[in-house]
Amino acid sequence: MDLDTARQELEEFIPHVKNISDGSIKKMAGRDLTRFKEFKKQGIAVKFGRFTQKENKQIQKNVEEFLSLTGIDSAEKLLFTSRYPDDKDTIHHLKTEHHFCEKISEGIPRPWRLIYYRARKMFDPNNYKGRYSKEEKEKLKKYQALHGNDWKKISELMSRSNLSVAMKFSEIKSAINYGPWTKEETQKLMNAVKEVLRRKLKTENADSPLSLEQSDTDLWIDREKLYQALPWTEIETKVGSRYWRQCKQKWNSVLTSKLTRGQQLYRGTNGLRAKINLIKRLYETKAEDASEVNWDELSSAIGDVPRAYVQSKFYRLKVSSVPLWKRKTFSEIIEYLYEKKLPELEEKL
């Protein structure tokens, strides 16, 4: 299959496929496209976001079955083959012979790459070593000074996972403020986000008659979909006093405030329509648990808002509308909102 056809066919299942590199498209065409089509026949949508408990159990089952099939004696050897140089060739041969990619993703409607990363996180013994000691933090700083951001190399030296050492270094590399955000910090964050967003807008709209000065208005706030792809470590550096995760959370808060203030999303008939759409869309997902909901996708149900905004709106709806909601399951809450609250809202509208 040629690249353009593969990208076009994948777009049905992955809306953001145009932002994926050609190399990744080729891999997805081989590993995922047939699976996605099969799931579609079964009426199952491709999922993103947090893995459910059911999916985690399926990954565990797939890994255990593959180990049993091949005789590889541990999940660590299977998923972190480079740690075992003497067995590397044998393991690679067994993976190829027994179709590792297909087996590991069996029964899970997600891109193979995400399933593989999730399996590595679940089965990496280096992920379960508890807090970093003072000695480990000093070692981490020393290794980063020697090897830069080669987290794979550092993770081997530290016997910690790549993600763990990268995130821990981000926390300890500077004095992080954990108190309330000051006006100065918030302004630094706004300036940093605006700078990277304007850079993206300039790249995306190179042929647009819209000038850079025009895009410097609050129009850039409406590009909420960009917030997930922002370079948070770069923004962290520009802010200087906050860890990248804090910056991301604060930005979501700022964004929600500006969207609400600027567009008055929840006033009058617009507010009623938004609640109606949200309840209908949640009901259509047939989700048994909140972790099964793609909140990013649902954000389109009520306007160009962050997922955190959708989740907070749902929280307010259930608290104000569903009696004894704490005793109900997620699906029972949705059912109540659909059967009792929805008709009331439609009548008001």
Largest sheet: none
Number of domains: 4
- Note the beta-strand portion: under 5%
Number of helical segments with 4 or more residues: 18
Average pLDDT level:
80
| Helix-strand pattern | HHHHHHHHHHHHHHHHHH
How would you summarize what this structure contains?
The chain contains 18 helices and no strands. With 349 residues, it is mostly helical. α1 (3-11) packs across α2 (22-31), α9 (134-147) crosses α11 (162-172) and α12 packs antiparallel against α13 (232-239).
Topology (SSEs and partners):
Elements (H helix, E strand, L loop, with lengths): L2 H9 L10 H10 L1 H9 L11 H18 L4 H5 L8 H10 L2 H5 L7 H12 L10 H14 L3 H8 L3 H11 L10 H22 L27 H8 L4 H20 L4 H18 L9 H4 L8 H15 L8 H19 L1
Can you tell me about this structure?
The chain has 349 residues and is an all-alpha fold. The chain has helices at 3-11, 22-31, 33-41, 53-70, 75-79, 88-97, 100-104, 112-123, 134-147, 151-158, 162-172, 183-204, 232-239, 244-263, 268-285, 295-298, 307-321, 330-348. The model is unreliable at 208-227 (pLDDT under 50). The protein has four domains: 3-123, no CATH class; 134-173, Arc Repressor Mutant, subunit A, CATH 1.10.10; 183-204 and 220-260; 268-347, no CATH class. The longest helix is centred in the middle third of the chain and has 22 residues, at 183-204. The termini are far apart. Helix 1 (3-11) packs across helix 2 (22-31), helix 10 packs across helix 11 (162-172) and helix 12 packs antiparallel against helix 13 (232-239).
Notable traits:
349 residues; 18 helices; single chain; Arc Repressor Mutant, subunit A; mainly alpha; 4 domains; 62% helix
